[in-house]
Amino acid sequence: MGINVNQIARALNVAVQTGEYPPRQGKAAEEAAELVRFEMQRVGSVMTGNFDYWGLPDADRPTAAPGAEDRADTAAQAAEAKRRSRPRRRPARFKDE
User: Fold this and answer.
1) In the chain, how many domains are there?
2) 79 is in which domain, residue-wise?
3) Please, what is the angle between helix 25-53 and helix 2-18, to 10°?
4) CA 60, 64, 55: angle at the middle one, nearest 5?
5) Domain-located, residue 94
6) Over 70: is that where the pLDDT of 95 sits?
7) pLDDT tens, position by position, 9-63
8) Are 92 and 18 in contact (CB under 8 A)?
9) In angstroms, rounded to a whole number, what is the distance separating the alpha carbons of residues 86 and 79?
10) Is residue 71, in this structure, part of any structural domain at all?
């Protein structure tokens, strides 16, 4: 699934850079992202359901390493800040002449 998402992201980036993309492409990408989020929630639910089915006590269930969530949040915020600070490239069809 990750490989497919990466291929989609690359195709979207190339389309924006070349200025050749269909109308509604942004909406389609948002819908796809929402479906990925939904499926990831389902994966988490299935894992929890399996733990419940097999009677694994809450104390014995796997958890994230201490501080892992904070580190992931910090890394995501840093990546977003880096992305926002990059200069925006305009597609060739919008360049001033």
Assistant:
1) 1
2) 2-85
3) 170
4) 25
5) no
6) no
7) 787 778 777 777 777 777 877 888 888 888 888 888 888 888 888 888 888 877 7
8) yes
9) 11
10) yes
Phi, psi of 95, deg, nearest 5: -70, 145
Write out the two tokens for 88: 């925006």
Buried b (16+ CB within 10 A) or exposed e, 3-26: eeeeeeeeebeeeeeeeeeeeeee
Joined tokens for residue 93: 């069809």
Structure tokens at 52: 């419940």
Residue 26 tokens read as: 């942004």
12 compared with 95, residue with greater pLDDT: 12
Q: Does residue 17 fall inside a structural domain? A: yes
Q: Which residues contact 36 (CB under 8 A, 6 or more apart)?
A: 1, 5
